[in-house]
Structure formats: C-alpha cells, structure tokens
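Hi F.,

I've been meaning to write this up properly since the lab meeting, where we talked about keeping a consistent format for the predictions we share between groups. The idea is simple: the sequence comes first, exactly as it goes in, then the structure tokens exactly as they come out, then a line or two of notes. No screenshots and no reformatting. I'm using this chain as the first example so we have something concrete to point to.
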Amino acid sequence: MRIVTLKEIQSMVSLSAATVAVRDAFIDYSQGLIEQPDPMQILFKDELGRLTGDCHVKSAQKKRHAYFVIKVASGFYNNAAAGLPVNNGLVLVMSSDNGQAVALLQDEGWLTQVRTAAAGALAASLRDVKKTDCLGVIGTGIQAYLQVKMITEKLSLKRVAVLGRSLEKSAAFCRKLNEELDVIAVPMDSARSVCHASQVVITVTPSERALIRAEDLPESLHIVAIGADSPGKLEIDPSVFHAAKIVVTDDHDQCLHHGDFGAAVRAKAIKEDADYAMGKVLSGQYSELDFNGTGISIVDLTGLGAQDLAVASLLVDQFSTSL
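Output, unedited:
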C-alpha cells in the first residue's frame, strides 16, 4: 500500500481536472454506474447542544472500475481559534478485484474540499452569466475561498460580494481574495445585500439557522447551497424553496435526510418529488429547464461518495503502474 502525503497530492491533482472528474461522477451516478452506501455521520456538540464539529464517512464503488474508496472527513469549527486546521481526513483506496489496500491518501481533508468546490463550480455554471455579473458567497472559510477561486475562473467573473459572521471577518476575507485571486471582492452587511448584488450565490457555512429567506430574494437568482451536509444544519429557509422555479439535488434521498431540500419538504414548502437530479441535468436530460431569466433556482449539494471516488481515482491512476 502506498501512503501519499498532502504535499504530493496537491502537486498531482489540478482543480480543472478534478472538476471534469466530478462532472463525470455525477453523470455516472445518475446512470446507475456507481453504488454508494448511506453516509455515516458523527456530530459533536457543546454543553448547550450547539454543533461544534462533524465527521463524515463516505464510500463508493463503480462498475468495472479498478478501485473503491472509503473517505473520512472531519470539520471542527472552533479549531481556527486554537490555531488548528478546521478540516482534516483521509481517503483509503482499495482494489475492486481482491479487496487489498492500494493507497492511503493522507489528504488532511483537501480532496474533500476540492471535490466539493468542483461540484459548486459545476452547479454555478448551470446559469449563464456575463463577465460583469457578480458572485455572492456566504461564508469565509477555506471552502468559501475554493468556491470563489473555481467559480470565478470557470465563469470568468471578477466581482464578488461577501458575507461572513461579522463585518470584520468579511473584510478580512475580501482582502485575502483581492490579494490572491483576480477578483474585486466587497464585504456586505446582510444576506439581502448579497442576494441583490449577485446573479449567483454560494452558501458554505455550518449554520443551524436559515441564512437566506424569501424576503431577501431579488427577482432572479441562482443559489448553490453547500453547507447543510449534516442533520441539524440549515442555510436556505423553506420559503426560498417555495419561491423557486427549479430545484436540483445531488442525491434525492441524501438531501431529503440532511439537506436544505429536506427541511423544505418537511415544512411542506415544496413537494418531495419536485427536485431534478444533478447528474441528469449535467448530461442534458432536462433540456426544458431554464436557469436563466427571471425566477429563483436552487442546487442543493450534500456531497457524494461518487465524488470522492472520482478525485481519488484521478490521483491513484497517475501512479498505479508503479504499485
């Protein structure tokens, strides 16, 4: 078994290649070529019952594919205050022929971050945008940074509107974006301000309360919801789903269980069968869908084992001949 360090992994996986691999994984999954068990989740709470961390275990196998994977990814939200990384994890790659361990990818959560950002970029690109349009981001962590980097590069956007937990955090994040990326990022003081300044909005927080509500919406907006990947998390109020003309989910059952879509269904704001599958949208099976013009569209992403298989295979394929 080969053990691969984070430094090696980052040198071998490009963001653009990861996006292509994740797109193919979505389509393969929608066609029944990939099997993935329900994810296992461990939630950590403080003495007041507030969510302070989570650990996800996801896995997947693909028909006639050399490997299957088991991924462990953790996020402990208070780590930054202690000078520790918020995210960590690893990916175990095993042979589909004999069950032997092929590689242990000590990615420290980086591959999960990349495949999540790739999915966000794909979801954002469902809407046509002009170079003068604005990307809104709610959140200021590493995932927010990667989302901005990958989406602005993919859609050729330069303007970014940012909302963090405080104006200070928003301003600091904007300075980082402006210094390191080819964008002009501006801090905002409310979700409404972000929504009205933007054509596409990404939410990437561990929030347990809705951040965007119907009263925050402009006439037209494309929302990509990423943060609600565990039970109890919520970023998009059910009223927003009630107002939406299009709702897309990466996995129907998973989003029902712990996505914003599921919260909206339980609130009876939207019907349980009102969503479209991300993989089928990407493959053009829903040609009637129009993400442009007026109206609200939402993509609810909770993260698939299929994505983990895709990025891990992308990496292992590069050194498999030497194993």
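Notes:
The mean pLDDT is 95.
The chain has two domains: 2-112+306-322, 117-303.

If this format works for you, I'll send the rest the same way.

G.
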